[in-house]
Write a structure and sequence with these properties.
alpha/beta; two-stranded antiparallel ribbon
Length: about 260
């Protein structure tokens, strides 16, 4: 049986050894955010950012680069050059996951404060446009909720107009949105007043209703992974252990350099 020129060429190319070819580059998911997502160190344990737990739900070929930093807002993160730092290394096919609002709300601090429907959206656009210019995909995540309940035991939202402003911007800019504010509020409602204490950084000396301990960070990271799958930010093969128990012993706090 005779072979066509195309078949001969294809066969020859297939026979060429892959010497000198670089392996496929791993995709990176960059996190730009505040203390609720940030890496924590030994002196802060058991406080845990949800970004520390997110890798447990992602395949090994999808790397998490957690640039979230305590105390930052969408504005101060930009003003300190932290967005530029990400944009200097982000590459086509990567993801930039953006979660801010906790510190944007601090109206008494001009270095961090943004107004929901004006400056907050303006700064978020910088992340969206910056990622797109680099060929990366921007993803907006509404801020995870604090632990706050009313007298009737109902979980209460604490972020004012910021989540709504982010949702509106996502629609306007056609950006994928992970509605972590709504999902976390529903989770805290389901768990209730007492059980939620086991998810936040409650210790013998501190009652912290904003930051998480290992179980809380794992629970929120699971929400992020699940919502990323639902919104098709991530493909099915990107997400692992979504319905499995994650041991809290997997959380580690390195010594700060």
């Amino acid at each position: 049986m005779s072979l066509t020129r195309r078949q001969v060429t294809a066969g020859a190319l297939a026979a060429v050894p892959l010497v000198g070819r670089s392996p496929e580059r791993k995709r990176t998911l960059y996190i730009a955010g505040d203390s609720t997502a940030a890496q924590k160190y030994a002196d802060a344990a058991p406080e845990t950012g949800w970004g520390m737990a997110l890798p447990f739900f992602l395949r090994k070929g999808l790397v998490v680069a957690n640039h979230a930093v305590n105390g930052r807002s969408s504005k101060s993160f930009v003003d300190e050059g932290r967005l530029d730092e990400i944009l200097s290394v982000i590459r086509p096919g990567d993801l930039l996951l953006v979660q801010f609002a906790h510190n944007d709300e601090k109206s008494d601090d001009p270095t961090r404060y943004t107004e929901p429907w004006t400056t907050y959206q303006d700064y978020l656009r910088m992340y969206v446009e910056g990622a797109r210019k680099k060929g990366a995909r921007p993803v907006l995540a509404t801020p995870v909720e604090r632990r706050r309940f009313d007298a009737g035991g109902n979980a209460v939202p604490t972020h004012g107009e910021y989540p709504a402003a982010m949702r509106a911007l996502a629609r306007e800019e056609r950006v994928a949105l992970l509605d972590i504010e709504a999902l976390s509020l529903a989770l805290w409602q389901e768990l209730g007043v007492e059980e939620t204490k086991k998810y936040f950084n409650w210790t013998d000396t501190e009652q912290d209703n904003t930051h998480f301990n290992p179980p809380g960070a794992i629970a929120v990271a699971r929400l992020v992974a699940r919502e990323s799958l639902r919104t098709r930010v991530l493909a099915r093969h990107d997400v692992v252990r979504l319905h499995e128990e994650i041991p809290t012993s997997w959380i580690t706090w390195p010594t700060a350099s």
